[in-house]
Amino acid sequence: MAEAQAQTTLSALRIDRTAAPTKRHRRMRRWLIPVVLLLAVLVLAGVSVTRRAPTVRVAEVREPLPGEQQTELSAAGYVDSRRRSVIAPQIPGRLMDVTVEEGEPVKEGQVIARLDDQDARNVLSRAEAEVRAAQARLAAARAQAENAQRTTERTENLAKQGVIPHSELLDVETAGSAAREELNAAHAELGVAIRAREGARLQLAHTVVRAPFDGTVARKLADEGAVLAPAALAGTNLGGIVELVDLDALDVEAEVSEQQLSHIQEGQPALIFLDAFPDRAFLASVTTVRPAIDRSKATATVMVRFQSVPKGALPDMGAKVAFLREPLPPDALDPKSRAPRVPSSAVVQDDGHSAVWVVRDGRLVKQPVRLGQRVGEEVALVEGPPAGTQVVVAPDAKRLREGRRVKVEAGSG
User: Fold this and answer.
1) Nearest to residue 400, comparing CAs of 46, 51, 54?
2) Closest CA to 221 of 312, 113, 83, 314
3) pLDDT value at position 16?
4) Percentage of the chain modeled with pLDDT above 90
5) With contact defined as beta carbons under 8 Å apart, do 296 and 257 qualify?
6) Poorest-confidence range of 114-118, 237-241, 283-287?
7) Beta pairing, strands 93-98 & 347-350
8) Among the listed ranges 16-20, 124-128, 226-230, 284-288, which one has the minimum average pLDDT value?
9) How far apart are CA 177 and CA 73, in angstroms?
10) Who contacts 35 (Cβ-Cβ below 8 Å, separation ≥6)?
């Protein structure tokens, strides 16, 4: 009996797992799932933060410009030619033929164009006819004068002999004087006619337009059929046929502020850098400082002449001029003589050896370097990455490691 009661008591204490969960259990289970999800998100965020690519500031390994250390000041300007003209006819007329094209070289005296010459030929024909008529009048006047001279001589002899009265001698002398005046007038008329013929010939010659100097046709301004007037103004075509430029007489017109003019003098060595050839420099020298100031810009124009005009240089090309304190050494323009440079802050020490952090394809690579001369805030690389390579400036050794992905700071490099 007692044993049966004990079993009944134990059965009452046993947990019935098939029974429905209580309200408290349901509440705990509802809060447990969001907490677990939140912890998982926090863990993932911590992992992403630790793996996030750091941002670095970079600079490019650069090749120094020729004459950089000798440069006194720099200025911008444009290429221009000392001989540059709009070629226009000297007389008005209709353009019949243009014998040159843009970019074509021409020689002094070469025919560039022809105008309609019919009117000029008609004028010349009339002038030549006037010359022939004047020559005939001169011949007749000369014959009359010679006849009058002979008559005067005979009459004078007769008057001396008393054969004819003195009054008749006076009449003959008057006629002889008139004949001489006619002869003089005929001479003058012939001279006028000859000059008119020369003018007509010159007008005819002006219908053929020739090059005034050796050069290259920069622009063609008119085509056949155009009626031209003998005038041309800068920037406005009022009768020009072509623009002719001497490409062997190129200078650079650089604008220099009036405060810096004291640093420039004629004959001063200079270097010209053309925008069209950014990797090249050209030896030059100052030829003229124009004695005038542009009040609107407070600048003066300085003419800088190429030592040797480079092939491919054209008028109106953009240029920069470096005015030098002293002439350059002979090998200054040789790229091999100019070691690449990096900011000094990009160089780190690794076990007593110099190195730089290179950014390559978005990842870090430590590259050993051998340093040369220090120049200002930069240092020359005797050995190391080539010009154009991105290196990290002021690298943080705690954040950087070989192969780590990095982001380049916007605006650096």
Assistant:
1) 54
2) 113
3) 52
4) 47
5) no
6) 237-241
7) unpaired
8) 16-20
9) 84
10) none
Alpha-carbon distance 51 to 403, whole Å? 13
Give the helix/strand (H/E) hosting 49: helix 23-51
How many residues are listed for the chain in this entry? 413
What distance in Å separates the CA atoms of residue 253 and residue 325, rounded to the nearest whole number? 19
Phi, psi dihedral angles at 261 (to 5 degrees): -60, -30
Q: Under a CB-based contact definition with an 8 Å cutoff, are residues 152 and 172 in contact?
A: yes
Contact 342/372 with Cβ under 8 angstroms? Answer: no
The CB-side HSE value for 178 (13 A sphere, CA atoms) comes to 6
Cβ atoms within 10 Å of 207's Cβ, excluding its own: 21
Q: Which two three-digit tokens encode residue 308? A: 């040797």
Site of tokens 């390994």: 61
Whether residue 340 contacts residue 387, with contact meaning beta carbons closer than 8 Å, is answered with yes
> Are the CB atoms for 310 and 250 separated by under 8 Å?
no
Residue 50 has pLDDT above 80, yes or no: no
Q: Which residue has the higher pLDDT, 172 or 10?
A: 172
Region 78-83: mean pLDDT is 95
Q: Token digits for 361?
A: 């394809």
Helix (H/G/I), strand (E/B), else coil: 127: helix
Residue 134 reports pLDDT greater than 50: yes
